[in-house]
Amino acid sequence: MNNDIYQVGPKIRMALPTLTSKEQSVVRYLLDKGSAIGQLTIAKAAQDNSVSDAMIVKIAKKLGYDGYRDLRDSLYGYSQLAVSNLFEEFSPTDSASEIVDKVFRTAIQALEETRAILRIDDFNAAVTALYTAQQRDFYGVGGSSTIARDAAHKFLRIGIRSTAYDDPHMMMMSAALLSAQDVVLAISHSGQTSAILDAVRQAKRSGARLIALTNYNTSALAREADIVLCSTGRGSPLMGENAAARIAQLNILDALFVCVARQSSEDAERALEKTMHSVQKKRET
Predict the structure, then answer these.
(1) What fold, for 116-280?
(2) What is the pLDDT of residues 2-52, one digit of tens each?
């Protein structure tokens, strides 16, 4: 697959926080045009958004394009991908079957586009950091806390000691006790959550390495991190953007888990056998 085309939508959405509210409105208008963007003139785009042609060009350049035509052509190419058409807004008239289809399509889109923007060099660096660390702390609050706990659970199953924290005070205390031999993996959709930022800044002062898992590579969390792994997801007003992104984040962590386990497969298998045996009596027969 041509990753450059698959990256168009995610990269533009990731750039939204760097734009003004008016610029964001224009970009969302262009994204929502779908294949019709191919015939959209700069004059029409400017008129529909009550801005000047020059502002449209300025926005295109802020997004990394040479000008409006370059941006338009990229958006048109993106609109022709099957993945760009998977997302559909919910309607009050949707049946249960239609809602199920739309939820699944949104998740598929998040997975496809996250894979397209995932930088393998950064991913490999995260694998090495997690494998070689003495202590691994996973930080997440709100919806991200469940992802952090899931990751810590998986690593513990193969004998790799990890701890998940979702309480701001506990995160700060843990961060204060870390060292240069430890690593923090912080999960935040926006990358702007103050409780996470406070904890990772304390962890950095303690010397720990920081892996960020976020939707925005320009966020405060990304700027603090040594390694940045980006997820992406197009949300709806009902479910929110982070609902789809969580699916992608879980898959990134699953891939990290498998790669770390593969570093010492025999030890991982022995630990897995022990941990599985330890909980067998908790299951009813």
Answers:
(1) Rossmann fold (3.40.50)
(2) 458 888 988 998 898 889 999 999 999 998 888 899 999 999 999 999 999
Give percent of the chain above pLDDT 90: 61
Relative orientation angle of helices 241-263 and 143-157, to the nearest 10 degrees: 10
DSSP assignment of the chain = --HHHHTHHHHHHHHGGGS-HHHHHHHHHHHHTGGGGGG--HHHHHHHHT--HHHHHHHHHHTT-SSHHHHHHHHHHHHTSGGGGS-----TT--HHHHHHHHHHHHHHHHHHHHHH--HHHHHHHHHHHHH-S-EEEE--THHHHHHHHHHHHHHHTT--EEEE-SHHHHHHHHHT--TT-EEEEEESSS--HHHHHHHHHHHHTT-EEEEEES-TTSHHHHH-SEEEE-----BTTTBHHHHHHHHHHHHHHHHHHHHHHHTHHHHHHHHHHHHHHHGGGS--
Look at residue 2 in the predicted model and tell me its pLDDT: 45
- Tens of pLDDT, residue by residue over 199-236, are 999 999 999 999 999 999 999 999 999 999 999 876 55
The reply to whether the predicted model has a pTM over 0.85 is: no
Q: Which CATH architecture has domain 3-85?
A: Orthogonal Bundle (1.10)
Tally of residues, the chain: 285
Q: Give residue limits of the domains in the chain.
A: 3-85, 116-280
Residue 240 contacts residue 221 (beta carbons within 8 Å): no
Query: CA dist 238 to 2, 29, 216, Å?
Result: 31, 19, 21
Are 252 and 115 in contact, with CB atoms under 8 Å apart? no
Bridge partners (DSSP) of residue 130 are none
What residue type is 231 in one-letter code? Answer: S
